[in-house]
Amino acid sequence: MRVLVVGSGGREHALCWALAASPLLTALVCAPGNPGIAALATCAPVAATDIAGLVALARAERIDLVVPGPEAPLAAGLADALAAAGIPCCGPTAAAARLESSKSFTKEIAAAAAIPTAAWDACADAEAARAAIRRRGAPVVVKADGLAAGKGVVVAATEAEALEAVDSLSELGPAAARFVIEECLTGPELSFFALCDGTNAIPLGGARDHKRVGEGDRGPNTGGMGAFAPVPALTPALEAEIMARVIRPALAEMAARGCPFRGFLFAGLMLTDAGPQLIEFNARFGDPECQTLLPLLRSDLLPALAAACDGALDRFDLRWTAEAAVTVVLAARGYPEAPARGSLIRGLDAAAALPGVLLFHAGTARDAAGALIAAGGRVLNVTATGADLTEARARAYAAVAAIDWPEGFCRRDIGG
Ligand code: AMP
Ligand code: GLY
Hints:
By secondary structure, the chain is α+β, with helices and mostly antiparallel strands. Helices cover 30% and strands 28% of the residues. It has helices at residues 10-20, 51-60, 71-75, 78-84, 98-101, 103-112, 126-136, 159-170, 236-256, 289-293, 301-310, 348-352, 389-402, and strands spanning 2-7, 27-32, 42-43, 65-68, 120-123, 140-144, 153-156, 179-183, 189-197, 201-209, 212-214, 218-221, 226-229, 262-272, 275-282, 324-332, 357-361, 364-366, 372-374, 378-386, 408-409.
């Protein structure tokens, strides 16, 4: 099979790494890719949001299957455009991707499908949001309705803070034309994943993400500073409960509305005393959760993705190792506000040669002389597997120590 992966981050590097191991693969193309992906795939200089360009590339490369990584091309209709061109895509249509692109839509689906979730008000404007905040009182969660690259949520401890959040979120522009005001839940969070074919879903397991930039979960939110799996709280019974109460009802409701969901479904859950509660859906794999989970997969990923496109997941099963994995994100100084670009990164070969270690590139580039430099906020993902979390963690941090990049930083408490 000839496969096109869309995206340029660590998640897409991990997808390419897993796909490259498939005996069914005959060609791997990535658009636009990154220097790490370039070792596994042909990188094509087409932006992940250039829908027409991606369809033309898929045609020119005679692609049998497109695997989109990020949400933006999905929300912009990549799967729809590929379907119109007769090219299978393991990702949702724009209508199905509303599970991620509109928080009020997610809430509507949760209500219709009786999925446990925090109580909420959908607010058409800032004035309605302020009224809902006053009615609910603090603590309360203020969310911009649209896609806001992780910046659209404020968990407010006081009413004043919540009212202020309405003003600051309004500055996000169109993403904050509408708001969701939500009951504040407490409990550990879990990122849970399922592969869906529109009707059937198979679990891909769970991981815990560390979202804050600083150790001890302090500082601003980021795209994710690291992740680990397995999460001890995710017992087989809890996984079955999440599939039965969250994933399958959502799939059934989407299908009933004429927009069946195909691809990776990511449920952000809060494990409360009253059971798992849905915080959000994402229409894609998590980043860095994908880099953590795929190294634990023992089955071939490619036929599973093809089966998701063919509506054949009811006959599918994936095997996983009982090992653990930890991913540490190396970010450029200044991340998330103003990451410094251009610094030299060395020592990757030595780090990659350590036992159980995999390096995934996220925000790297090559300078004119071919040297590896930082070109983004989250720059490298260091994943290590081990017999248990303690070993995986020790291996990941040993690899971090082998990387020579003084301008980078990471959290020292991932997987702890
Ligand atoms: P989201 O962008 O929806 O993933 O939200 C970002 C973060 O805000 C989540 O990972 C949670 O930590 C927090 N959050 C979102 N909704 C709630 C809620 N209802 N109660 C408490 N925390 C929340
Ligand atoms: N790591 C969380 C996400 O991918 O949204």
